[in-house]
């Protein structure tokens, strides 16, 4: 089993954009081969900062990699980068931390 956490810290004034992004990602993730579960967690982090954690649980790391490297995802990032470079997209300051884990059978170690 493989788990991925994408942690996003964003200013509370921009949280509506983060929510929209999380909703889109949630829809894109549903019914994907190898996906066991998907959750989005929330907490107020600091004054005027909120945190969203997107947690996916997969049957295997290759299933996650297949989902992550799908053409739509890669092209979406390229397009967003291109828009920012040409001043066509609003800059939102987001701190992102990614953590990934593989299950360990402690009893067999």
What is the topological layout?
Blueprint: E1 2-11, H1 15-29, E2 35-46, E3 49-58, H2 61-68, H3 71-85, E4 94-102
Antiparallel strand pairs: 1-3, 1-4, 2-3
Number of strands: 4
Shape: globular
Order of helices and strands: EHEEHHE
Structural class: alpha+beta
- Major sheet: order of its strands? 2-3-1-4
How far is it from the N-terminal to the C-terminal residue, by CA? 17 Å
Number of discrete helical segments: 3
| Overall mean confidence score, pLDDT | 87
Query: What multimeric state do the chains show?
Result: single chain
Radius of gyration: 16 Å
- How does the major sheet shape up? 4 strands, antiparallel
Query: Runs with pLDDT <50, length 5+?
Result: none
Measured by DSSP, the beta-strand proportion falls in 35-45%
Query: Which range best describes the helical content: under 10%, 10-25%, 25-40%, 40-55%, 55-70% or over 70%?
Result: 25-40%
